[in-house]
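Most newcomers find our protein records easier to grasp once they have seen one. A learned vocabulary of local backbone shapes supplies the integers on the structure line. An example says more than a description, so a record of this kind follows:
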Amino acid sequence: MIITTTPSVEGRTIREYQGIVFGEVISGVNLVKDFMAGLTNMFGGRSGSYEEELMKARTGAMQEMEQRAAEMGADAIVGVDVDYEVLGSDNGMLMVTVSGTAVRLD
């Protein structure tokens, strides 16, 4: 399936709009990752544990959106938007949401 942030697919014509599709993942970040990220913050550098969690959440949200589009009979998703948010009283949850328009192409 073609997934793009652009409103169209170059060289292809959108034949039919199937509707808006979403994918959501809410992921908890545990105490060990918080501790390691705190050390990285203090000494500088990148937080590999947080980056890995972010990549897994983003991948999961994209896969969920793609599955929902496939169930609608789409062969592409255009206009994809990715959003990130932290949730919870201690900001211990990471939410990744993706959305786009499921379409059928000629």
About this structure: Residues 2-105 form a domain with the Translation Initiation Factor IF3 fold (CATH 3.30.110.70).
